[in-house]
Amino acid sequence: MGPSRGIPSSGPYAGRAGSVAALSVVVAVVLGDAGVVTLALPEILRDFGAQVWGVAWVLIAFNLVLALTAVPAARVCVRRDPAVSTAGGVLGFAAATTLCAVAPSLGVLIGARAVQAAGGAVVIVGSLELLVEATGSERSGARRWAAAGVAGAALGPVIGGLLTSAFSWRTIFVVQIPMVLPALPAMLALRNRVTRGRENPDTSPDRPHVLANLALALLSAALTAALFLLVLLLVDGWRTTPAVAALAVTAVPVAALAAGPVFRGLRAGTRSEAIAGSVMIAGGLAGLALLPGDELVWTLAPQVLIGLGLGLSIDSLTAAALRDRIPRALYGGWTIAARHAGVVVGLAILTPIFTADLRHAEAPTKEAIASLVLDAPLPASTKLDLAEQLGRRLSAERGRVPDLRPAFKSLRVPATDAPAAAALEHGLQDQLTRAATRAFRTAFLVAAGLALLALGPALALRDRISS
Amino acid sequence: MRRLGLPLIAVLLVVAVLGVQLAAGGAHYTPVRPANPCARRPVPPIPAQLEPLAEQIVLLGLDDAACRLGISRERLVLALANAHTVSPRSSAALKAGLGDAVDRLDRDHRLPKVSQLLPEALAASNLPGIAKTIIEAIPDGAVDNLLPTGPLLRRTVDELDVNRLLHELHDPNQLGSALQSAILQAALREIVDRLRP
After folding, report:
1. What is the rounded radius of gyration, in angstroms, for the C-alpha atoms of chain A?
2. Which among A263, A299, A357, A367 is the top mutation candidate for probing chain B, defined by the most B β-carbons within 10 Å of its own β-carbon?
3. What's the rounded Cα separation, in Å, for the pair A251 and A249?
4. Shortest CB distance from A431 goes to which of B27, B31, B54?
5. For residue range A53-102, what is the model confidence (pLDDT) as tens digits?
6. Using 50, 70 and 90 to split pLDDT, how confident is the model at B125?
7. Chain B nearest CA to A429, separation (Å)
8. Is residue B86 within 8 Å of residue B166, measured between CB atoms?
């Protein structure tokens, strides 16, 4: 940012550290909401007795509305005092979040999520202006804003999973309210402090940074796979509990937060960071497509790659998209719109791919199961009995990965055959996890392709060495 | 160089992770593929009991039938399990497959003698006690001469109602008694044929 567009600070600000922390938390909470319900979807589905496509809208509605309203919300923040607009956004967000927590039906929940996203859009873009003001530096404020967003996006599914496991999906929304409301005083304290030079969005000669926003959209679409598909694979495919899945996917946020301290010392520049980040995200997703087993440890290295790539690229691309652009709330709005449009596109592309692959996996899985049962060293009558019950389990859960354990629980086998029955049960579960893992492969590879596509705009970026 | 360093580190990290996963079999972590039904499977030792013998004949017969139909044994089994009636083509393939299985085991001298199977068959049958006593009194050699296992099972297969058998699949107890009854009937006819001048 040039001197004529210098940070509009109207003097030292006493509650700086507290305000920066409160604003960062609000940004993280709102952007974490984009994926916070990922691990809660099965429970929401059960609670409302809904269809899978309907429940997916709990996730889609938030991201879609956030993408559509981020730029208009930014225009509101630019025309009015961003402190007041952001405070209004927080109130709207908190009210909609309360409605989410007590939603009596899926329709109300989806509607409340849409309102929540609209309020969140104002909060996010307004917080950018306020963080710049509170930190006293555009670079520091923008970086803090981007980092809070990365932390929120990466931690959202984890925290949502843990809360769902420990309490219920409604808790996800309950805990957000006391996290966002304390930021109100900090926001109101910044009233009339954000001064503007030439900040009319209608007359600004600046245009959104197309390359950086395009790369952000493509990487966000790819990251959807990491945070959404991986969680589905762990919970539905590998039968991991939501709590364990949530803990397992903490590798992404931990690595994302470590990316800065680990790599920024290299001072490679925003372009190199964006390129390296895209390569790591693509590589991590390819790693998830090539898992050699169903042990959680195999997901760690790919997750670390994705996390490091996320930390490097989103931060750098956001900085590139905002650099020297005034009004920054408007261009921050464009980055949010690009990222969440990317999430929606990612869901739209990847969900049909993995659901179709899951359906196509049904026949070969049944054949693999039949093969193991036919060749099992068990009496023929036991095998016939088991085949009957397995058939019922498989037909009962069409389109989902079945749980075969109940078929074995009700099986009566002589003590001498118990080890063979246990080995068969283990073998069949292994076939199911293999089939589920294989069914996610194409979606992960397509997501890796989306991350590689982001290399195009990243390579075309003008470089600037980060400090 | 500084600008190339970070992307180079990224590429090296990705190559290392993917290399380890591929070396550990990441490309092949898929469900087992059904074996080629036309390739001969090794036959495990068959105890001199009706159920293991019937199972081995059925397994070999399914392979043979699937090979004739050009599908995997597993696909044939799943199709049979879900079908209410069997097409004439599948039924013929099954009968031919079961017959070939009996012939193979007979050729390889893997079939137990009827005298070895008789006590179990009699215990499970609903013959009157006096009949059981008389049959048990017949020397094993005479039983085996009168009823060689191969021809007896071949006859059983020839007279088998495949549709009825598949209908009984849903109840293993009924299936067992249906099979024993089929074998007994075939045995009686075989005895009558052999005693006939």
Report:
1. 24
2. A367
3. 5
4. B31
5. 778 889 889 999 999 999 999 888 888 888 999 999 999 999 999 999 99
6. confident
7. 11
8. yes
Query: Rounded to an integer, what distance in angstroms lies between the CA atom of residue A187 and that of residue A77?
Result: 13
For residue A251, give both structure tokens: 């590798």
Is the alpha carbon torsion for B171, B177, B183, B189 positive or negative? Answer: negative
Angle A328-360/A138-166 helices, nearest 10 degrees?
40
Q: B46: which chain A residues are within 8 Å (Cβ-Cβ)?
A: none
User: What is the greatest pairwise CA distance in chain A?
Assistant: 86
Q: SS3 for A12? A: coil
Chain A residues within 8 A of B170 when measuring between CB atoms:
388
CA distance A191 to A183: 13
What does the alpha-carbon distance between residue A173 and residue A185 come to, in Å, rounded to a whole number?
21
Report pLDDT digits (tens) over B165-176.
Answer: 777 666 656 666
Nearest to A121 by CA among A166, A73, A174: A73
Which residue of chain A is at minimal alpha-carbon distance from B166?
A384
Q: Give the angle subtended at the CA of B71 by the CAs of B67 and B75, to the nearest 5°.
A: 120
Residue A77's nearest CA partner among A234, A194, A220 is A194
Check CB contact under 8 Å for B78 and A280. Answer: no
| A286/B77 Cβ within 8 A | no
Interface predicted TM-score (ipTM) over 0.90: no
Residues of A in contact with B63 (CB under 8 A): none
Structure tokens at A43: 């429970």
Give the other-Cβ count within 10 Å of B85's Cβ.
11
Residue A181's CB is within 10 A of a number of other CB atoms, namely: 15
Interface contact flag, B74 A368, Cβ < 8 Å: yes
CB A443, CB A232: distance < 8 Å: no
Residues of B in contact with A269 (CB under 8 A): 2-3
Residue B3 distance to chain A (closest CA, Å): 5
Give the minimum alpha-carbon distance from A284 to chain B in angstroms, rounded to a whole number: 7
